[in-house]
Amino acid sequence: MTSWTAANFWLIPLLPLAASLLILGFAKSHRGVAIGLAVIGQLTTLSISIAAFAWTLGTPGARGVQNFTWFTFGEQAVRIGCVLDPLAAAMLVMITLVGLCIFVFSKGYMAGDKDFSRFFAYLSFFSAAMLGVVIANSLLLLFVCWELVGLASYLLIGFWIHKPSAAAAAKKAFITTRIGDLGFFLGLLWLYRSTGTLLFYDNGNGCLESAGLLAIGSSSTFIALLIFSGAVGKSGQFPLHVWLPDAMEGPTPVSALIHAATMVAAGVFLVARVYPIFSLGAIDGVTPSLTVVVWVGVITALMASLIAIAQADIKRILAYSTVSQLGLMMVSLGVGGVAAGIMHLLAHGFFKALLFLGSGSVIHASHHEQDIRKMGGLRKLMPVTFVTYAIGMMALSGVPLFFAGAWTKEEVLHATAHWPKSQAPYFLMLAGVVLTALYMTRQMIYVFYGSQRRNIDLQSVRPEGLEPAESNAAENISAGRTGHSPMFRPESIHESPPVMTRPLIVLAICTIGLSAVLTPAWPWLHDYLSGESAHFDFAQLIQPMLFISLALVAGGIALGVLIYRRAGLTDPLQQAQPALFRFLENKMWLDELYAHTVIALSKAAARVSNWMDRFVWDGLVRAVGGIGRFLGSFSAGVDERGINAVVDESVGGARGLGRLMSRFHSGQVQLYLGAVAVAVLALLLFYAWLA
Amino acid sequence: MAGLITALILLPLVGALFVSASRPNSARGIALGFTVLSGVIAFLLWRNFDSAAAGMQLVERHPWIPSIGAEYLVGIDGLSLLLVILTSLVFPFALLAQRLSGGACALLLVMQAALYGTFTAQNFILWFLFYEMSLIPGFLLIKIWGGENRDRAATKFFLYTFLGSVAMLLAFLGIYFAKGTFDFAKLAELARSGPLLSGKLGWIAFAGIFLGLAVKVPLFPFHTWLPDAYETAPTGVSMVLTGVLSKMGVYGFIRLLLPLFPREIHALGPWLLGLAVCSIVFASLAAWAQSDLKRMVAYLSINHLGYCLLGLFAVSAATARPAVELQAALSGVFLQIFNHGITAAALFYFVGLLEERRGSRGIHDFGGLMQRTPLLCGWMSVAMFSSLGLPGLNGFIGEFLIFKGAFALAAVATAVAVLGLLFTAVTFLRAMQLLFSGPRTESCSTLPDLLRREKLVIVPVTLLMFAIGIAPQFVFNIFNTTVIQMTRLFV
Q1: What is the C-alpha separation between B11 and B31, in angstroms, rounded?
Q2: I need a surface site. Which of A630, B30, B453, B478 has the fewest CB within 10 A?
């Protein structure tokens, strides 16, 4: 079995791909078949992933590599391949497991949608591409899958394509990430030029192996930073993060899978995958490129958690939280804590998917209300969602001991504290810890505690762009029984159906269960990822630094309770600091800044190019033609005045070059051969004269 | 299989005669029959072509005008074969796209013959004859069957290309007087040992040929005839113009300019690279600003051919020339020629379908199409994503190789050219947003989705895009030996 896995793990991305194609091709109008195919595809790929994971566990230090030639141009073969190592295997299990939960959840969430089958086709396609990114053993194959992941994201953000806001968000996501991807593309070309191969591992000849790294030499900083720009785009890092919150226009399961758990983490994964290039020539673990990674991560993490405090849309809060957590992971990679960063990525995948699905359950139950200020008291109405959401919240905030996120965050902080270059990132990250606890407490209080805050007309609170007729499935299920009521009725809120709550429970169990393998006392996953064998050491559990972050998390939560305990429709922070709140609520006006600078400039450039074409270049051509005409009529004039006008009259035909030129412009083809003859004659004379 | 190439060239001409003599309602059928037949001959050529052998194959040589050394000399290498196959694919596609009258069909067939001739002729006189023979049907097709502003557009098309041709002819006569031959292979051999023409004369001859080809491709700033011509021409003609005719220019660059004037083109390298980058960036920007779909696709055509020229100029401009990068750039250019022919023709086809349904083709005349015509939108999206270079589709592989080679040979120009990839994406995504998304609009509420016959046309073309994107080896096999042989010229 294990050797079978090592030989056939390349099947992992192909199974969901096959499911996707089958659905698109044959099951468009058969919902049952579509969901069945999608789930079977996901299940089989999950089982192979688990087997692959077991294989990497059973053979420590082994790396399964399969390379083959994609095509040959000239005398050169372009080779791609797959790799199975701890990094890939751990990612595979997380992606397929979270993916499966989300597939099942979507069955309930999307039940009434008319494009149900198409949804699952896209979701399976996404899964395939994402798994391809993870097992790619070639930067080229990784880039190919990377772009396909972007396509899937584009298709799924814009899934409700009739919503103009969704279409705009999809476009924004594709273009913003493509800006980063072009940098990535250049980095890839540079790497290809330096090393002559894009294979990561190739029996010592890959670009991440000694020979390749030697060939990269001093250009490593440029290559690393160019590749990093791709990660910045995909992982929503400053300054290219602006697409990610808008991507929440997609259906909530999509936000959970793509824009929280998996795709957005691909950037972090990419940096981890090509880490040898980033750390090439490191002195004391510091290189210029890694320093850039650290600071981009720090800025992103802090900025996003600040913005999250002032957001009202439940999904947008989570989106900014994702951005901030991704920043944290980048910091971890930058300071050298690769295993810690990837562990946080894995844990984050589970608890953030849990939170997003929980928010989906909330949104579903409250008739597509997404404004947390208008929710409240859902604790009693939706107990399962509440408990699971609370688990996710505690994992994200970093409440220690039983929640996966806490240990991994601790690891990251630990790594950051030991960065030789500066202590600033560590303290800034600590501030981030407080902010995270604060905004999550705010969200919990608004959504689940207190009393109903919204006894208002539903019409005014519908999310933008969603008209009653366009409501999706989830709404139809919940509202179907009572019919659409324009007025909100608290009693119509109820727990979501089991098909939706069960995935929540599974993810919650994973979130807690994962904490067992993440503790510093038994750093099993950490050592697995960094290729060492783990030892159990209980003393490691209690470290002084743990108390610092424990105090900060407790402080953050307490602060949150204090501030938001009695919060009404107006945010307390808004009352206290209206200017600051407006600044954060408007996402620091970065969208506006871009709109008035980069975007405005490019649009102007487009208009100028068009104008230049129509008037300047074409104008030049016409001017040349005009000069010809002018010369023609001028010589005609000379003819008429200088030579006998009477002759001119009587001949009638000879009207000078002007006429000739205008005849050209009427496009008479007969002239053509004549002109050729004249030209040939002229040329012969010219050459005769030269000779 | 001697005479195969001649048969290939003659068959469409015979077809044109038949079409002219036929009744109007059977003209298109006959024309289609003849293009398919010549497609079969092209296929036979491919079968008889030895992809491992270097040099010209299936050569036919007959004396023609001995006094000036002009021979009837045709043959194919990998590049010629690639273009012959492309021609054989695009013409049936174009004839299926639209109902055309008998006259138009006959002219299209004449054009097809001329193109076969251009891509197989191996001496200048014959080549030039075919080259010019393709111009006149193009002119007439735009002038007679074109849309708005057809007179202006046709005249512009004609004068531009005609002036370019005259310049080219003069230059070649100069070369002939100096060297006494029109044979491409002999001239290339002579050029390897020393300049064909010395000093200023060499530059004049180079400028003449360069001008003719630059107009034909077109290269910025000689491109302003193109948007007008493509916009005005009927759908099928636009498909042929962009799919095949634009390749004559690139072909000329590869067959004539690079082998005959290596010194001149090398000396001007940075300038030419600059022009190619301008083509790429400005055309993609201008495409973004268009509101007419056809004009938009036309500008993107300039942009995509800009990548071809970027690859070629990078090859000739570089001082250090590792074989691997030369092969990457040249293979990329060859593949891009083929890909662009397929994809751009498909894009024009789709714009034609939209125009046929709605009666207009303004980008703002549509909206919410996805809800009304999901299949049309889906298949059109594939063509658009292929054109913007999405991996998994044909466009990516060609562009990847061009950029790989060009980046190693001319890093700065290539880095700037990457902007073209961005603006192409912006252009297409804007188009998709405006056409497909949003609520269903009144004006588009009755448009029919893809019809059966339209599906039969578009499905094979799309499958070809996927095939090249996923497993491109079968196309590389056509020209790999030719690429290797050409790189030897430069190393």
Answers
A1: 11
A2: B453
B324 within a domain of the structure (yes/no): yes
Q: Is the pLDDT of residue B225 over 50?
A: yes
Q: Which class for B144: exposed (0-12), middle (13-18), buried (19 or more C-beta within 10 A)?
A: middle
State the total domains in chain B: 1
**Could you tell me if A63 and A40 are in contact, meaning their C-beta atoms sit under 8 angstroms apart?**
no
Tokens of A448: 């689940």
The reply to whether B149 falls in a domain is no
Whether residue B304 is predicted with pLDDT greater than 90 in this model: the reply is yes
What is the rounded CA–CA span in Å between residue B219 and residue B303? 9
How close does chain A come to B91, measured CA to CA in Å?
25
If 0-12 CB within 10 Å is exposed, 13-18 middle and 19+ buried, where does residue A535 land?
exposed
Residue B117 falls inside a structural domain: no
> Has the ipTM of the complex gone over 0.90?
yes
Indicate the average pLDDT of chain A. Answer: 82
Report which of A544, A530, A603 is spatially closest to residue A272, judged by C-alpha positions: A530
Question: Which of A166, A189, A679 lies nearest to residue B403, judging by beta carbons?
Answer: A189
Nearest CA among B440, B404, B432, B228 for reference residue B331 = B404
pLDDT tens digits for range B315-327? 988 888 888 899 9
- Report cis status (omega within 30 of 0) of the bond before A16: no
A311 with A447: CB under 8 angstroms? no
Flag whether pLDDT at A467 surpasses 50. no
Structural domain that includes position B304: 268-491
Q: How far apart are CA B133 and CA B110, in angstroms?
A: 8
Helical (H) or strand (E) element with B76: strand B70-76
- Note the pTM of the prediction, 2 decimals: 0.89
What is the DSSP track for B270-328? HHHHHHHHHHHHHHHHHHHT--BHHHHHHHHHHHHHHHHHHHHHHHHH-SS--HHHHHH
CB B277 within 8 Å of CB B334: no
Question: Is pLDDT at B187 greater than 90 in this prediction?
Answer: no
| Residue B368 covered by a domain | yes
Is the pLDDT confidence value at A557 over 50? yes
Cα distance from N-terminal residue to C-terminal residue, chain B:
35
Contact A73 B476 (CB under 8 A): yes
| B396, B418, B429: residue with CB nearest A182 | B418
Residue A469 — very low, low, confident or very high, per pLDDT cuts 50/70/90? very low
Distance from CA of A179 to the nearest CA of B (A): 7
